[in-house]
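R.M. (postdoc): so does anyone remember the format we settled on? I'll just put the structure tokens first.
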């Protein structure tokens, strides 16, 4: 099982190295909309 991320689910920069680039793009797009 993977460890849950800590408070970085909505960081557009993708500070967590384990996260794929696609997730950062999706989150950044959501932030840009709002």
């Amino acid at each position: 099982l993977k460890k849950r991320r800590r408070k970085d689910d909505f960081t557009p920069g993708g500070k967590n190295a384990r996260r794929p680039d696609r997730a950062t793009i999706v989150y950044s797009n959501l932030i840009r909309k709002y």
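R.M.: ...and that's the designed sequence above, right after the tokens. Also worth knowing: The mean pLDDT is 64. The first helix runs from residue 21 to 33.
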